[in-house]
Design a protein that fits this description.
This protein has eight helices and 19 strands. By secondary structure, it is α+β, with helices and mostly antiparallel strands. The strands form four sheets. It has a six-stranded mixed β-sheet with strand order 10-11-12-9-3-13, sandwiched between helices. It has a six-stranded antiparallel β-sheet with strand order 18-15-16-17-14-19. Strands 5-6-7-4-8 form a five-stranded antiparallel β-sheet. Strand 16 and strand 17 form a beta hairpin.
């Protein structure tokens, strides 16, 4: 991550994990989780990276690579998207939006470098450059009942509805849900905006944002789940992340065949357990002894105690799913889109 950004957050009492360099909290992990569930929080999104595709062929290039309809991505809007292997498995997921003639892709930071380089390999003769903005553009999450007020007090633009994008003075704001926003800002604006936003928004670590991802069923492919899911397993077709009316893209035949033959047996569930679990952990069922019945996509400590997460689970084994093995801790699972 940007070293100046880390230094600034440490000066604001941000605590980082020594091994993963993840922003854990600002001194009160439990209190920050409680605040995320009831109040307004601001979270440095250091677990996310940003890729830019720029050039006169940027739109057709991305349209031919990603699962969503980039050709019809309007200014002022964002969309979920994915990039699949030839076998239709998601190598990465994105939040994509336009920035003038360029396109920006929000991605899990642990995949950003590898995916950026691999996308660049497919450019060939197209007039497009794929580059990282992760050091130049910082990302903040703002969530809660006073989120819009906090943005307004900081003189930041506020999209009118979820799915919207607004920009002013080099700062871009994406509205994920009714009360949750992502702010992309240049490093030069870091200190001033942080000071203004924290008047009404409490600083919180990444566990709080991941819990909000779980509550809002926001799917994110990370290194732990790369190439594990066909898009429909993570319900991407239900949130606009897959177009079945566009031309070919890597894995398109598999994705389309899966959709039209109705072979999707695994879907996205919210899960809860009394014990710790993490993205990439397998789920097993006593009723299915031969193989795992699911995999955790996102995990976070719960304000109510225990852990919550998103997981892709074979639907007929969701009720009996257990962590790690058939004898593992039981999991409570509820389908996101029943």
């Amino acid at each position: 991550m940007n070293p100046n950004w880390r230094s600034f957050l440490e000066s604001a009492e941000g605590l980082f994990d020594g091994e993963s360099a993840e922003l854990l909290n600002f001194g009160d992990a439990a209190g920050e989780l409680q605040a995320a569930s009831r109040q307004t929080v601001v979270v440095p999104l250091t677990h996310l990276g940003l890729i830019e595709a720029v050039g006169e062929d940027a739109k057709p290039f991305l349209h031919g690579q990603l699962t969503s309809d980039i050709n019809h991505l309007a200014p002022g809007q964002w969309q979920h998207s994915g990039w699949c292997s030839a076998k239709g498995r998601m190598q990465a997921s994105f939040v994509a939006w336009r920035d003038g003639d360029a396109y920006r892709l929000l991605i899990s930071a642990d995949l950003q470098e590898a995916i950026q380089k691999r996308l660049q390999m497919f450019v060939l003769r197209a007039k497009v450059r794929v580059a990282s903005l992760s050091d130049a553009v910082l990302l903040l999450g703002v969530s809660g009942p006073q989120a819009a007020e906090a943005l307004g007090d900081a003189a930041l633009p506020c999209p009118e509805a979820p799915g919207g994008v607004a920009a002013a003075d080099g700062v871009t704001v994406l509205r994920l849900e009714a009360e949750r926003y992502v702010v992309a800002l240049p490093e030069s604006a870091m200190a001033g905006l942080w000071q203004k936003l924290t008047v009404k928004a409490r600083p919180a670590g990444l566990p709080a944002w991941r819990w909000l991802d779980v509550r809002n069923a926001f799917p994110l492919v990370t290194l732990a789940t790369r190439e594990e899911f066909v898009p429909q397993m993570a319900d991407f077709e239900k949130i606009g992340g897959v177009s079945f009316h566009k031309g070919c893209y890597p894995g398109q035949e598999v994705v389309a065949r899966t959709q039209y033959l109705g072979k999707v047996k695994r879907h996205l569930f919210r899960i809860a357990a009394d014990t710790v679990f993490a993205a990439g952990d397998e789920l097993h069922s006593p009723d299915n002894p031969d193989q795992a019945c699911g995999k955790v996509m996102t995990a976070a400590p719960s304000p109510a105690g225990g852990w919550e997460g998103l997981a892709v689970i074979q639907s007929n084994f969701a009720a009996s799913a257990r962590l790690g093995s058939r004898e593992g801790a039981s999991v409570r699972a509820l389908a996101v889109n029943p």
